[in-house]
Amino acid sequence: MIIRAFAAQQAGGNLEPFEFELGPLKPDEVEIEVEYYGICYSDGHMIKNDWDVSRYPLVPGHEVIGRVAEKGSIVEHLKVRQYVGLGWRARSCQACDQCCLADTLLE
After folding, report:
1. Which residue, among 22, 64, 65, 58, has the nearest Cα to 43 in the 3D structure?
2. Which of 29, 57, 66, 98 gives the lowest tally of CB atoms within 10 Å of its CB?
3. Structural domains of the chain ordered from first start
């Protein structure tokens, strides 16, 4: 799948249109059709590489809300077209308090 986004190509760079390939969906992953997302002050730090951890091209933004577009072969607790949220982490264990709190808020 081709993803269209905006990315900084270098530290402090402007956000410019950017396309990339995600690769195949893993069995425990879901693809989210993003409807809303947030860009916050920490994204600005990442764009500028203030913390010396950024890798470029860098697509800022997190706190995603969208619908499940596709799910991996072992994902049973979500349905295609169901609304989901994704915090600043890219994965969710679906077991700890932080992951379960996000699920509760979306019900």
Report:
1. 58
2. 98
3. 2-106 (3.90.180.10)
